[in-house]
Amino acid sequence: MTSTVPNAVEHADEQQPPITMFGPDFPYAYDDFLAHPAGLGQIPATEHGSEVAVIGGGLSGIVAAYELMKMGLKPVVYEADRIGGRLRTVGFDGCDPSLTAEMGAMRFPPSSTALQHYIDLVGLETRPFPNPLAEATPSTVVDLKGESYYAETIDDLPQVYRDVAEAWNKCLEEGADFSDMNRAMRERDVPRIREIWARLVEKLDNQTFYGFLCDSEAFKSFRHREIFGQVGFGTGGWDTDFPNSILEILRVVYTEADDHHRGIVGGSQQLPLRLWEREPEKIVHWARGTSLASLHEGGEPRPAVTRLHRTAGNRITVTDANGDIRTYQAAIFTAQSWMLLSKIACDDSLFPIDHWTAIERTHYMESSKLFVPVDRPFWLDKDEETGRDVMSMTLTDRMTRGTYLLDDGPDKPAVICLSYTWCDDSLKWLPLSANERMEVMLKSLGEIYPNVDIRKHVIGNPVTVSWENEPYFMGAFKANLPGHYRYQRRLFTHFMQDRLPADKRGIFLAGDDISWTAGWAEGAVQTALNAVWGVMHHFGGATDATNPGPGDVYDEIAPVELPED
């Protein structure tokens, strides 16, 4: 797949190992852990059937609950809204149910190998996602400063775009040892990964993405930096990320998280929903045919959590929206971490004070989308004069920013994501209703495609989301600011509770906020598996000697620790 601006130096050897989200902060092979026939571990038989609260029914919570159930524990899932979290697939009123829109996660890189384990487990199919200039994308239009360029490959764009691509490659190589790290991650060379990353964390923790570009001789041109921000690499413009820590961006490019994306046929929310209903073949304590759904009354999760506090015996006591109070030996919290500051009444004693500080300092990106259903993929029609597609996947500096064209065949109804925006660009949409948003978007696209009447193809009402306005999310995903590495380290390593005071153990953090790779479902899966290991250890269990878990090898691969003074 060709990105708008490649986020990797080209490699000639096609036989090299595939890249995975193996580090760089915690180079642990979660895919190998999941694939091992010995399983993820065991708990003492005396603890079988013990209840564990799992707060949040997004992907992280459902994965954690599913694996705990297989070990013989009884997960009790609490969910304030709907199973799936930011894997949210919705339909259009009055339209064929097969016509859907991905309001949250919609594209997944092959490097997400732990995520792929569960996609395969529940029998879901994937297909290439039509990103800018991807092989699955018939054509792309880049529209900046009122000038539009039509392209099927990057070579169709003006020379300046190839200059920007080359500048990004040079910037990565000179400032972030890209080739060395890429090679080490492909070979899963842990000592080399840690050596490179330790140096870069110390050097770059205080640096913004934009500052990193400015420090590069390759990006001395403001025009090049501006084009890079508006067009970007992989999925489109990255100027909304310019204030964020460059370490966040390096994690993306090292793991090729922004490349070769695939979408889940039928919608990503099917993954947690199918895991909820799935009856594992290998399960301890519970009868064959047991599922998460069957362990919950009416097959539904418990409602929203309203209070969390510690009680005698270092138990975790949970109060839900129905007023029901239950006490657990252990709990996993996978919901948006700011919920602990605002919507849930919490004891200060739940976490050490420095962890509370890290939760409070978590920085979130805003994000909005708007989709409309159309009668057919009319964009594949050819312009009689030019022979080009009449409409293309579109990157622009206008209000819409990114427009994606999604179809399931030439004769079937299709979907347009009229706009996908982040941060300030997302906030511009916040006061507008779905229909008001659509009107502005159609006007912008009409200026790019004056001969295309998009409106006449629309067959239903638009659907939209602004994640910063969602009461149980308050943002799209975490993105560290400069200087936040120490905070992220505290949250990610929270599952290693032998290092905590005895009265601060028993509740485990997991989910997008806790992951090093926020915004990618792989991070939700990885932190869920960390929490599963933590709960297993808390109950006196252990992994098989042939399949050590993330906590067993922690001391060998622990994230870089920066001084606090």
Break the fold down into its secondary structure elements and pairings.
Blueprint: H1 30-35, E1 51-55, H2 59-71, E2 74-78, E3 89-91, E4 100-102, H3 113-121, E5 126-128, E6 140-144, E7 147-151, H4 159-176, H5 178-186, H6 190-204, H7 209-214, H8 222-231, H9 246-254, E8 262-264, H10 270-277, E9 305-311, E10 315-320, E11 325-328, E12 331-333, E13 345-346, H11 353-361, E14 364-365, E15 367-374, E16 393-396, E17 402-406, E18 414-422, H12 423-427, H13 434-448, E19 463-466, E20 477-478, H14 485-492, E21 507-509, H15 521-538, H16 554-557
Parallel strand pairs: 1-2, 1-12, 6-16, 9-13, 12-21
Antiparallel strand pairs: 3-4, 5-8, 6-7, 9-10, 10-11, 14-20, 15-18, 15-19, 16-17, 17-18
Helix pairs in contact: 2-10, 2-15, 4-8, 5-6, 11-14
Task: Describe this structure as you would to a colleague.
The protein has 565 residues and is of the alpha/beta class. The protein contains 16 helices and 21 strands. It has helices spanning 30-35, 59-71, 113-121, 159-176, 178-186, 190-204, 209-214, 222-231, 246-254, 270-277, 353-361, 423-427, 434-448, 485-492, 521-538, 554-557; strands at 51-55, 74-78, 89-91, 100-102, 126-128, 140-144, 147-151, 262-264, 305-311, 315-320, 325-328, 331-333, 345-346, 364-365, 367-374, 393-396, 402-406, 414-422, 463-466, 477-478, 507-509. The strands form six sheets. A seven-stranded mixed sheet has the order 7-6-16-17-18-15-19, sandwiched between helices. A four-stranded parallel sheet has the order 2-1-12-21, with helices on one face. The chain has a four-stranded mixed sheet with strand order 11-10-9-13, with no helix packed on it. Strand 16 (393-396) and strand 17 form a beta hairpin. The radius of gyration is 24 Å and the shape is globular. 52% of the residues are buried. Residues 1-13 have low confidence and may be disordered.
